[in-house]
Amino acid sequence: MPAATVHRRPLGGPLEIMVALPDKVEVPSSFADNFMGTDQDVKELDVPRPETSWCLLELPQKEIDALSAGSTFYFQSHEGGAGLDDGGAALCTDTETFSIEFLENSNSLFLAQVFEGPPASEGTPAPEVVEGGVGEKAENTKDTKPEAADGSCGGAQAEGSGGSEKVSVAGQAEAAGEKTLSMRCEVFGQVRGQMITKPMPFNKKRVYDLLSPQALGIDLKDLPVVTTDVLDYEVAASAAELRALLNEGPYVELEGAWRMLPPSLMRHIMDTAVNVVAAKGWDHQDLDEEALLKEVQQHLGVATVPTLAVLKKVLKSVEPDPQVAAPAAAETEKDSTAAGASETAKDSSTDPKSDTAVDSAEKGTAGDAAVASRPAVEGHLNLDKAKMLRFQALQLLQMPPQQVRERFGMPTPVPQPKRPRHGPGGASGSGGTTLLMEEFGTAFQEITGAAEKPTPEDLWKVLGDQAYLDEFEGSLHSLDPSTLPLDPNARLTRLFALQSHWNQGRLESFVAPVLGKGVKVATWVLKQTRAVFVELVVGKEERFLIKKFAM
User: Fold this and answer.
1) Distance (Å, rounded) from C-alpha 197 to C-alpha 63?
2) How far is CA 186 from CA 28, 39, 61, 156, 168, in A?
3) With CB atoms counted within 10 Å of each terminal CB, which end of the chain scores lower, N or C?
4) Which residues contact 504 (CB under 8 A, 6 or more apart)?
């Protein structure tokens, strides 16, 4: 939950009031009237020290610019708990989420502002810098070097205690000229250290935990309504990151309340929609969305697919990628123009048969790209054929293996010699209880109508992170990556609970999404695991990663 807000505004009055400091010039310094106690005032060491109203905060330059432009940042807890049981805090900016680490400094560290004005003896007060107190809006100060002598930005730190003192401050020398005003420095705050921030992935599981009780199909009569405002308050994430997750994830907004679409329900709706399109013979690149919604509702019921928004959310995963579509459209237009010019200037002596074959291949590729890249007409859906085939292939992992074999006319595999179990997913040598990688390749070839059987590399492009392979039995097992922990070490422990031996590349693909920015995935994984060599085929050893003894 939000614990405090961070604002950036001038330290009283216009920014021009802050000045650059001449080199080797002594500036009269004193504590401001509204300065709140120091650590030196503490007489009893066994009691907590008094709270301070200021803290140094380290941020990337772009976040400082956003803060200076008027943005508001928030400190929020990860789990929404109370007191210390809140999962820790994060700093949420407009576009990113940062972890926080506080580094305490045992030395006395003070914040001061330097300005030009009549001598202090004339009674001219310093610009006001503190409004509110602890627990209210906290001023954010930038510990930066003074800029040019135009006074656009500035600030100083002074160390020491007591009443009035003189501080020698290093800076850029002022241009020559007679001074009509004296320079003054007032200490307005004390800090005990600084907050170090690092970019981090926000807790997506928090959104899942909040919305899983709000799954579509559940009666919300006795449940609280989760709106966008509730999610903003409860989830430690920037507004941009949260909106992106709600837009891309299995969530849909119905009548102002957010609902979750369970994976099983999404697969059911998708399977029905894909089969309806195939049965009706509709053009998957130009689908009437209202007609498709009506057909799906007839099969599954209005309660399952209440609105078009639900259907479009499910079908979003099989729409063409916009980042690929735009370049494809431009390239298609360019190729069409070049092809027209080439056709006009074609030599009559060229072999027409050969040209026809080449042109057909080029036109076929260009035509597919043009169709995939064209924007969907209002009220119509444009679906990607390749993604629809991938969904149908992944659906095979949700079916009983024997049913898949019967559908594609594959025999039950011969039971292999028993091996020691290497995790809950292992087949332990029993034939027919799981779908083999080779069987999945055969089924995928039948679905796509390909002339040649796909290679293992082609199959892994289809499977992605939706399955893992038992390397000893060659069997595939469905896996929902959203159910894995967000903590890298906890995720690694969960993966090794599934099976004991992992291919390094596939293990890294599951761990990489939850590692922080700048972390080398391969290096991190190798530090947490150990390598072993296993002879699966006589005379040929293969390298696998297993957990360390301490895990």
Assistant:
1) 11
2) 8, 18, 27, 9, 13
3) C
4) 522, 525, 543, 544, 545
Beta carbons within 8 Å of 304's beta carbon, 6+ residues apart? 216, 217, 265, 268, 269, 297
AA letter at 467:
A
The enclosing H or E element of 93 equals none
Report which of residues 208 and 350 the model is more confident about.
Answer: 208
State the pLDDT at residue 545.
94
For the record, the structure tokens of 490 come out as: 């906890």
Question: Max Cα separation, the chain?
Answer: 103
Instruction: Enumerate the β-bridge partners of residue 469.
Output: 476
Residue scoring higher pLDDT (550 or 268) = 268
Q: What is the pLDDT of residue 471?
A: 86
pLDDT in tens, 498-536: 999 999 999 999 999 888 778 899 999 999 999 999 988
Residue 366 and residue 332 in contact, taking contact as beta carbons nearer than 8 Å: yes
Structure tokens at 509: 């693909």
Strands (E), 48-96: 56-57, 73-77, 89-92
Residue type, 535: E
As to burial, measured by CB atoms within 10 angstroms (0-12 exposed, 13-18 middle, 19+ buried), residue 526 is middle
* DSSP character string of 278-345: HHHT--TTSEEHHHHHHHHHHHH-TTTS-SHHHHHHHHGGGSPPHHHHHHHHHHHHHHHHHHHHHHHT
C-alpha separations of 92 from 29, 134, 203 in Å: 36, 19, 12
CA 319 to chain centre: 21
Rounded-to-integer distance, Cα 385 and Cα 372, Å: 9
Q: What is the pLDDT of residues 420-473, one digit of tens each?
A: 555 544 444 445 688 999 999 999 999 888 899 999 999 999 999 999 999 888
Rounded to two decimals, what is the model's pTM? 0.63
pLDDT at 36 over 80: no
- Torsion sign (Cα): 211, 212, 216, 221: negative
